[in-house]
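Example 3.2
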Amino acid sequence: MPLDAVLAAAQLAPAEQEHLAQARQMQAMSFAVHIPLTCFGIAFPSFVVFCEWLHHRTGKPVYRELARRWSKVMLALFAAGVVTGTILSFEMGLLWPGFMATYGEVFGLGFALEGFSFFLEAIFIGIYVYGWDRLSPRAHLLSGLPVIAAGITGSLMVIAVNAWMNHPGGFRLRGGEVVDVAPFEALFANPRLWPQLLHMYLAAYLVAGFLVAAVYAFGWLRGRRGAYERAALLIPLTVACLAAPVQVVAGDWLARNTAEDQPIKLAAFEGLSKTTAGAPEHLGGWYEDGEVRYGLKIPKLLSLLAYHDPDAVVRGLDTVPADDRPPVNVVRMSFQTMVGIGTFLALLAALHLVAMVRRRGPPASKWFLRAVVAAGPLSVVALIAGWVTTEVGRQPWVVYGFMRTEDAVTGADGIVVGYVTLALVYAALLAGVAWVLRRLARAPMEGADPEEGSLVAG
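Structure, written as tokens:
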């Protein structure tokens, strides 16, 4: 960050509470739009390249057609992700100058490496999409591998920064200034990184897989049941269903990590007001006056889940001042929404995988296909709920234990104008992406193999 920008940030007046609320809402809106696109950036290129590999392996043209059409979808979503990612980058400096000015040298390396990954991804997406008839089949297939790698490494850098915000290290404070900075230690030797990274990557395959499968399950219910639709349904659905049970294990790992590093966030998950041995878990309910009302109480379940010991002591909210606690009901509801939808997706995955083993195909029931259609948008809800749990559960800290969010936010006016403008930009962007995807779906197929059945646009 340039020196003049640092000095300007340091001279800004302290933020009022109104600015803090508006900045949080603006940032939340940007995350809600960008994170599903990030999932496609991580997972979708591997779907495309896998389909092309299947064409090389089997010789069936349906897989090449699928890969070719999906590559155009990949390009459209990448372009949308560029817009939302650029906006987020500007928001980091404009909305949170105190954070950037104080800690930018600690995590700046992560954003720099993410930029290199972005340029690499942009170059090879262009080569892949426009190289179908210009490269040899082998060279074209190989050109897709850097797209997959760049999508993973770029997101890794951003997740590393977020993991550092939740478990800061790699620096010391001296007189309120950051000294002895070790960026690699801060970002890549962080014990929080690996469970959070695994959880996010699996979430990416769940969201991309179930959303794509939902589109073709809807077409299947309407009678579009050619070879193209079958492949387009089974590939992403199977990938998502393989990820779903692993996500349960990854979620358990991340929850136990949270219990060790952020016990107040864990207490907010349950609404546990007092430190308790053998702490219970409530399904549903509302936190009020230090207790959860109307929920279904399951004795000792929180201790069992958090520490794998039903009699373990779980730290309560009352161990920190009220100003150091997150908004409990927001965290509880988002956490339970994520877990509830995740359980539904895991059960759906079990049905699909059992049917694939026994029948070599998905369950034929219309109810199963309807559940797949519902799983698409529900997976996005679970994704956003998970990030609300992570980010709101860390409050009131932007850097856990070191900097409060109210000390990081801008004191400048005009956030409301920017908020409204940004909402209009996102509405136009989403409308544009929907229009492009619809045009791609209606585009005619290039050909069909009589042995494979008709290829009808899905």
